[in-house]
Write a structure and sequence with these properties.
The strands form three sheets. This protein has a seven-stranded parallel sheet, sandwiched between helices. By secondary structure, it is α/β, with parallel strands linked by helices. It is built from 18 helices and 16 strands. The protein binds uridine-diphosphate-N-acetylglucosamine. Uridine-diphosphate-N-acetylglucosamine (UD1) binds next to helix 1, helix 5 and helix 12.
């Protein structure tokens, strides 16, 4: 059997069309991870044609449309339009709506990224149908089951057939859970592919902040903009009135010395309104912006004095940009950003956050270095490896011949 682009031609002359890979996105942090993968798979000339499926977990234009445009992503072939709901309802609804899509496309594999509810929901549907599951950004562990993403990561990795990792520590985490080396491939970080490809095109800070009361403070020193970027959206930080009030107090104290730009997630915006905290900010020291587009956020981060965040992605992006990052959480699933990058965990205690920020102002903060394989080519490595992996599994009749990993083989690998 020989493969030629989208067709596989058997020696008896039978022609098969290559089965697609369903590539799933659902929430904002998925888009920048998937964009280079789609591009790299498409560059293989339809050997493994990607079909983009959007679950609709995120749906606001600010959380969605602008990213597809900025990242040059094709419009999704399918949108499941699930929207917001409790975790159980959202996950179940994604599963119900994804199953017929899998049936219709008979994919060679389902590829999921990251750790959001869409990731586990679609992985589970595929696994139960015997379709190989490919997980990009596998093996990250914050050891915090209170975070919904922590649960999503562990479960997705257990049922994935092929696990692509961003840092070497991930393999040890997977080994500890009984996942063998034959399923794990260290490829680097696809999100950094997107960052490196777009950093030159980032929107300048002056454009993003034009006309806002904060601009005077940010550009007070004519030589360089001076400001911090803040994002907060973890339920543990924003859903509790006492915690959120405490964090806002800390930001207020920091803003007396460094103007802050806060890009507000819809969840946080609703909580601020619910707790009567929407007016708790002095607009000349803390600018509240709507969720930013990818190129706007990249421009803001690239020139920032520091970033304060509870996001996973920003910890990695700041490391790639060499910008000091304070992570407002008690743990991180991305330890390389601390060991080699610019990240510092500062917890959620107000005093510690303020002291850590002032320490960065005094010292300039960590500069770090780019971690191994965060070089802009992770997606190409994935595409090449995946094409070979799928070709190796393809049987004469075009079905996936090799049996799926069983509990027995997982135990054996342990
Ligand atoms: C989700 C991911 C989280 C990721 C984050 C990035 C899970 C469990 N969490 O959290 O890992 O870091 O996305 O943003 O999957 N909302 C809107 N418009 C939208 C989307 C959401 O207004 O387009 C509001 C709704 O009130 C919704 C709330 O935000 O209930 C939370 O949305 P949801 O998708 O459940 O989780 P995120 O907090 O966004």
């Amino acid at each position: 059997m020989i493969s030629r682009d989208e067709q596989t031609i058997d020696h008896d002359g039978t022609v098969e069309t290559a089965r697609p890979i369903l590539c799933v996105v659902g929430a904002r942090p998925n888009y920048m991870k998937m964009a280079p993968i789609i591009r790299a798979l498409a560059a293989l000339g339809n050997a493994v044609p990607p079909v983009l499926v959007h679950t609709g977990q995120h749906y606001d234009a600010a959380m969605n449309d602008s990213f597809f445009t900025a990242l040059g992503m094709p419009r999704p072939a399918v949108n499941l339009e699930v929207g917001s709901a409790s975790h159980a309802v959202q996950t179940a609804e994604i599963m119900k709506r994804f199953e017929p899509v899998v049936d219709a496309h008979r994919p060679a594999a389902v590829l999921v990224v990251g750790d959001v509810n869409s990731t586990i929901a679609c992985a589970l549907v595929a696994a139960k149908k015997g379709i190989p599951v490919v997980h990009v950004e596998a093996g990250l562990r914050g050891c915090d089951r209170a975070m919904p993403e922590g649960v999503n990561r562990v479960l997705t990795d257990q049922i994935a057939d092929l696990l692509y990792t961003t840092e070497r520590s991930a393999a040890a985490n997977l080994h500890a859970e009984g996942i063998g080396d034959e399923r794990i491939v260290f490829v680097g970080n696809v999100m950094i592919d997107t960052l490196l490809a777009n950093v030159e095109a980032a929107v300048p800070v002056a454009t993003t902040l034009a006309g806002l009361p904060i601009a005077d403070a940010v550009f007070a020193d004519r030589d360089a903009a001076s400001y911090g970027v803040v994002t907060l959206h973890r339920p543990s930080n924003v859903d509790d009135r006492v915690t959120l009030t405490r964090l806002i107090g800390a930001l207020g104290e920091i803003s007396a010395r460094l103007p802050l730009v806060l890009a507000l997630h819809p969840r946080t915006r609703s909580r601020l309104a619910e707790f009567g905290l929407s007016d708790a900010f002095d607009p000349s020291r803390i600018a509240i912006l709507p969720p930013q587009g990818y190129l706007e956020m990249l421009g803001l981060m690239a020139k920032a004095t520091m970033v304060l965040t509870d996001s996973g992605g920003l910890q990695e992006e700041t490391t790639a940009l060499g910008v000091p990052c304070l992570t407002i959480r008690e743990n991180t699933e991305r330890p390389i950003t601390i060991a080699e990058g610019t990240n510092t965990l500062c917890g959620t205690d107000a005093r510690r956050i303020v002291d850590s920020a002032f320490e960065i102002l005094a010292s300039g903060g960590k500069r770090g270095r780019a971690p191994e394989l965060w070089d802009g080519h992770a997606a190409e490595r994935i595409a090449r490896h995946l094409a070979g992996w799928i070709a190796a599994r393809r049987g004469r009749d075009g079905t996936i011949a090799e049996p799926k990993t069983t509990i027995g083989s997982i135990r054996k690998a342990a």
